[in-house]
Amino acid sequence: MAKGLPKRSEDFSAWYNELVGKADLAEHSGVKGCMVVKPYGYAIWENMKAILDQKFKETGHQNAYFPIFVPKSLFEAEEKNAEGFAKECAIVTHYRLKNDPDKKGKLMVDPDAKLQEELIVRPTSEAIIWSTYKKWIQSYRDLPLLINQWANVVRWEMRTRLFLRTTEFLWQEGHTAHATKSEALEETEKMMHVYADFAEDYMAMPVIKGLKSESERFAGAEDTYCIEALMQDGKALQAGTSHFLGQNFAKAFDVKFADSEGKQKYVWASSWGVSTRLIGGLIMTHSDDLGLVLPPKLAPIHVAIVPIYKGDEQLAKISEVANKLKADMQAKGIIVKYDDDDKRKPGWKFAEYEMKGVPVRIAIGPRDLENGTVEVARRDTLEKESLQQVDLAIKVEHLLEQIQINLLDRAKAYREEFTNVAATWNEFTELLDGKGGFVQAHWDGTEETEQKIKEETKATIRCIPFDQKEETGSCIYSGKPSKGMALFAKAY
RNA sequence: CGGGGUGUGGCCCAGUCCGGUCAAGGCGCCUGGUUUGGGACCAGGAGAUCGCAGGUUCGAAUCCUGCCACCCCGACCA
Fold it and tell me: Does A242 have pLDDT greater than 60?
C-alpha cells in the first residue's frame, strides 16, 4: 500500500478520493461511474446491512426481491415519479448481439432483436413493486404490507464519486402499504427514526431529522422526511430519506382494498431507503489525514495485534501470548487479527492499520514479554499506552466502547460548532462563504426564494428540522413573514 | 452537456514539443540472505504488441486523421 494522503485542509476532495483507494474500500471499474467495492469496503457494508436488516425485521418488515427491469409502461404510470427520474435512466432496448459482418471478432447489437417495449433499469422500484402490490392487496386484512428489498439501482448521473454518487449503487428500499393515512405517516416517521438511530448509535454520525422542502422532495411523494449529516469540509450529506407517498402510487397502479365495511379504498404508502452512500458519510465524518477512522460497531476488524520480534524463537514466544490474548478477546465478541506476516515490518503494519481505520492496535515485543504488558494504541486519538496483559480483553472491550462514544461526541461537537443561526442576509452569506456548515435561517416558504438563495450562495435547504422551537420571524432573503427556520448548507 | 486532463508491465509514472539502442525509474511480484519498538536493506530475476483503427515515413510511444475509455471541475442529482 502506498503511503501518505493529501491533507484534508488542503484538498478535501483529493483526500477523500485517495483515502477510498488506499484504505482498500473501493476502486473505479472499467465502467463509467461504476465502482468495484473491495472486500474491506464491502465488509463495512455487510455490517451496516446486518444491523439495518435486523432493525427492519424488528419493526415488522419482511424482505423480498423484485426485478431489476421495469417495463416503460409501468415506469411512466406515476407521472411525477417518472418525470423526476426520466433523465437519468438506463434503458434496455435490445436483447441480443450478433457478429458484426464488417468487423471480424466484434459484436454488434442485432437490429432484429429490438424489444417491443423498452425496459428501464430501475432507478428505484416503486413502479414495479406497486404493480405487484395490486395483486397482493384486496382486503384490509392484507394490510399493512411491510416489505423491504436489498438491491442495486442505476441512476445515470452526470458526475459520480465513489460511494457518494455512483451510477450503480447498492441500497435497501422499503415499500409499505397501509389502510389509513395516519398509519402510513406513522411508518414514514418511524423509519426516519430508525435511520437516525442507526446513524448515531452505529456510525457515530449525528444527524438532523427534518422535512424536505417541496423542490427537494422525492418525485412522487407527498412529503419526504430525511436525515442530514455534516461532513468535515462543512458540506451536508443527505444520509437517508423516508417518503410519505400518500395515495399517489395506489391511484397510479389502482391498488384498492375493501375495508371492514366492504368499501373500496385506495391504500396509503411509504417508501424509504439508505445506500452505500452511507459509507461515504462514515468516511467524511471521522477520518483524518492518516486515513480511515472507523467506529468499532462497524469496523470489520476491531483489534490488530502486531508482533515485534527478532528471530523465530522470539516470534514463537510472542505468538503464544498473542494467541492467548486473541482468544480471550474473541470470547468477548471482539474481532481480532493477529498479523504475524513476516514480510512486513511493524512500522509498515502500524501505518497500514491506521490507513484502514482499525480502532485498536496492540503491539507486543520483547519488552512486553519481560513486563507482562502490551502497547495499546487507539485510532481515534492516536494515543498509546502500556497495559498489563491481565484482563486485557475486558480493558479492550471498554476501550472499544469509549472509542465509539468519543467518535460520536467529537462529531457532535464539530456539528455544533458548524451549525449557526443567521439573522441577516449578510450573516447568511458570510457563514456560507466562510466556515461553511449548517446555517439556520428564516425562510418565507416559497420555492422562488429557495431557488434564488441557491443561485446566489449554492446552498440548498437541507431540511426543515423537526426539532426546533416554534418561532416566527422574517425571511432572510425576502423579508416576508416566516413560520420557522430552515436548515441551509452546501451539499453533496 | 460545457471546461480541463489522462491513457506506456499488476500499480504510480518518465519519455511525446524536437521521430532514430527509449521502452527509463519507483512500488509491487519471484529467489536467496541480512533485518523487525513507526512505512527495512543488499544481490539476482520475471513481467510492455506504449488505449484502438487508419495514415505519413527508410524508421512512430513520439507526427497527422478518426474513434474509444476513464478521471477531475461545473450544471443535474441519493
Answer: yes
The pLDDT tens digits of the residues spanning A105-117 come to: 667 888 889 999 9
What SS3 class is residue A410?
A: helix
**Amino acid sitting at position A85:** F
For the ranges A7-16, A124-133, A357-366, which has the lowest average pLDDT? A7-16
C-beta atoms surrounding A284 within 10 Å: 24
Helix axes A447-457, A425-433, angle to 10 degrees: 50
A228: cell is: 442530514
Residue A364 contacts strand B, CB under 7 A: yes
Largest CA distance in chain A: 83
Distance B75 C1' – A34 CA (angstroms): 21
Beta bridge partners of A209: A227
Is A253 within 8 Å of A247 (Cβ atoms)? no
Higher pLDDT, A461 or A1: A461
Contact (Cβ atoms closer than 8 angstroms) between residue A174 and residue A57: no
Q: In this structure, what DSSP letter does residue A114 have?
A: E
Strand B nucleotides, any atom under 7 Å from protein beta carbons: they are 1, 27, 29, 35-40, 69-78
The answer, yes or no, to whether residue A137 has pLDDT greater than 80, is: yes
Distance CA A452, CA A164 (A): 26
pLDDT at A102 > cutoff 80: no
CATH classification for the domain delimited by A303-399, as one of 3.10.180.10, 1.10.10.60, 3.40.50.800, 2.60.40.2310: 3.40.50.800
